[in-house]
Design brief:
The chain is mainly beta. It contains 2 helices and 17 strands. The chain starts with a strand and ends in a 5-residue tail after the last strand.
Length: about 280
């Protein structure tokens, strides 16, 4: 994955850094796999703002992605690699031998003309895009789009550039241990599906938009610092001139502790942890 920088002809180009596209630029999305995506502007069913800093942005349509990879034993050809405005990773349009079309997440190295397959009862070739159950994946193999419950669809490692590494197969054959991007080692049921390879667009984290307008095109509205607000709007607000937050520990706009406050619910997941990400 390569990055593209620009000559500072305008202020917006001075710090702009883009990805060199790995998708087919002229590719048009498959209409049968599109569905409308209604804008919500961060508002809930009562019309009030429930998530701040959302609104506007370019019109999108949602691409229906096959996270389950449950079309077993039928080979599919990669028709084209496409850009998806709803996620960081690219997607691949697969045309199966029986004529059905599906979208999958596009791993690094997958290109138009390649063949992929999903197998349930045996090991598939270790080629990017092939899917199989975790119990057939050898130790050390990177995988993505990993299920947590068989048949539910992939939930782990779906973002651009992410992957899990299979670290061990337990003796009872019921669980497989995988290493997450956070260095946490987790037990996952061996019958869960996983797709071979690392997802593409790994350099997405290095992209710099360059100007505020590109954030607005994505539906991201401005964030205002708490100390710059009215005291009725934020606990950090008020004061004369440039003042500090005026309290020993930072607060959220609703008066709750932030910056270090633990928010992760771990009660029901600790039994699946082999190595916590907090341990060195």
């Amino acid at each position: 994955m390569a990055l593209r920088r620009y000559r500072p002809i305008t202020p917006g180009l001075r710090h702009r850094v883009d990805l060199v596209p790995e998708y087919d630029k002229g590719a048009k999305p498959e209409k049968s796999l599109l569905t409308p995506l209604k804008k919500k502007a961060g508002r809930g069913n009562t019309g009030r703002v429930t998530t701040r800093h959302q609104g506007g942005g370019s019109k999108r349509k949602y691409r229906l992605i096959d996270f389950k990879r449950d079309k077993f034993g039928i080979e599919g050809k990669v028709w084209q690699i496409e850009y998806d405005p709803n996620r960081g990773a690219n997607i691949a349009l697969i045309v199966y031998k029986d004529g059905e079309k599906r979208y999958i997440l596009a791993p690094s190295g997958l290109k138009g003309g390649d063949w992929v397959v999903s197998l349930s009862k045996e090991r598939a070739d270790l080629k990017p895009g092939n899917a199989m159950r975790l119990k057939f994946v050898p130790v050390g193999q990177p995988v993505h789009n990993v299920e947590l419950f068989p048949g539910k669809g992939g939930q782990l490692a779906r973002a651009a550039g992410t992957y899990l590494t299979v670290t061990a197969h337990e003796e009872n054959g019921q669980y497989v241990q995988v290493k997450l991007p956070s260095n946490e080692v987790k037990r996952v049921l061996a019958d869960c599906m996983a797709t071979v390879g690392q997802l593409g667009n790994a350099d997405l984290k290095n992209v710099k938009l360059g100007k505020a307008g590109r954030s607005r095109h994505r539906g991201i509205r401005p964030s205002v610092r708490g100390v710059a607000q009215n005291p009725r709007s934020h606990p950090h607000g008020g004061g004369e001139g440039r003042s500090g937050i005026g309290m020993p520990s930072p607060k959220s706009p609703w008066g709750k502790k932030t910056l270090g406050k633990k928010t992760r619910k771990r009660k029901h997941t600790d039994k699946y942890l082999i190595k916590d990400r907090r341990r060195k």
